[in-house]
Write a structure and sequence with these properties.
Strand order of the largest sheet: 4-5-6-8-7
Strand content: 15-25%
Number of strands: 13
Order of helices and strands: HEHHEEHEEEHHEEEHEEEEHH
Radius of gyration: 22 Å
Low-confidence stretches: 129-144
Shape: elongated
Structural class: alpha+beta
Length: about 300
């Protein structure tokens, strides 16, 4: 888990952010930014750069190497700081709260503006950059990218998809985005994996999920990573989250991804509630109905 940097904002000065932005700018060309280039990138005198580097190094916002040359790179904490400050200055968020979830490719925190919201930092590529770069479509057309680019593109992509899906599909309302961070509606309810449904709720919730998958397909997207871990359930229904890997329905593998999503969801319900999910409910049949725009209900005989 990357350290929470919200507490650093009050003690950082404008010039510290100029320095961090300068390192960020230099990283467009190289993972490690040469020390002598920083005054130009940060628009600061050389002496000021030296002072700000020490402050940022002390706080773990940048990293230094001196093997072939003296170079600097942003830590994820430094990138978080730049995104968080921008969102505060835009009045997108005003308060920072507790962690809501920590995963392999994102950290989520509760934040507040006019109502409780969620702030999601994308972490794609930070610990296993080469694998993510190879597998994710949104970086596959760029031969020279960094973890910073990968995470930012993931956030931009997810935010754009949420804007297209909301409110027709039950997804979190997108509120704002900067760099690798997204601010969205804070979801109510409990993760599907931790929910114990009553007998009479099982097929109803499953049908709701398939209906949302069908609505997303009608809007033009397949989630492509559906599981019991990216669905919230509450009294009002279901909410599907984590969309950065979604593919458009004209993607060459959209049909395969749709069937995999449905197989994952139907399989989860069948494992957890075997007495309520009929054996003849097949993901492939559901996929064909969705592709034809003909899905209406599970149509299970009582």
């Amino acid at each position: 888990m990357v350290r929470n940097v919200a507490g650093l904002l009050p003690e950082l000065e404008d010039e510290d952010f100029y320095l961090l932005s300068g390192v960020e700018q230099g990283m467009r060309f190289s993972e490690w930014v040469q020390r002598e280039k920083l005054p130009k990138f940060a628009d600061l005198p050389d002496e000021e750069v030296e002072y700000r580097l020490e402050r940022c190094l002390k706080r773990g916002l940048v990293e230094r190497k001196t093997i072939q040359y003296e170079g600097y790179t942003l830590q994820f904490e430094g990138y978080d700081t730049l995104a968080l400050r921008a969102l505060v200055e835009q009045d997108t968020i005003s308060e920072f709260g507790s962690p809501l979830g920590v995963g392999k490719e994102s950290d989520v925190y509760e934040v507040r503006s006019y109502k409780p919201l969620a702030l999601k930092y994308h972490r794609e590529g930070y610990t296993n950059f080469r694998e993510v770069h190879k597998e994710r479509d949104y970086t596959s057309d760029n031969d020279h990218v960094s973890w910073m680019y990968t995470a930012r593109k993931a956030a931009e992509r997810e935010y754009d998809i949420l804007e297209e899906l909301y409110p027709d599909v039950a997804v979190p309302q997108p509120i704002g985005q900067n760099r690798h961070a997204i601010v969205m509606e804070k979801m109510d309810g409990v993760e599907l994996s931790r929910t114990r449904l009553e007998d009479e709720q099982v097929l109803g919730v499953l049908e709701l999920l398939v209906s949302e998958i069908a609505e997303a397909y009608e809007t033009g997207y397949v989630h492509a990573d559906m599981s019991e871990y990216n669905v919230f359930v509450d009294e009002g229904g279901v909410t599907i989250f984590d969309w950065p890997q979604a593919v458009p329905t004209d993607h060459e593998n959209a049909g395969e991804f749709l069937r995999r999503d449905l197989t994952n969801i139907v399989g989860y319900f069948r494992r957890k509630y075997p007495q309520h999910v009929p054996d003849d409910l097949e993901a492939d049949d559901l996929a064909r109905e969705i592709e034809a725009g003909a899905f209406d209900s599970l149509e299970i005989d009582a």
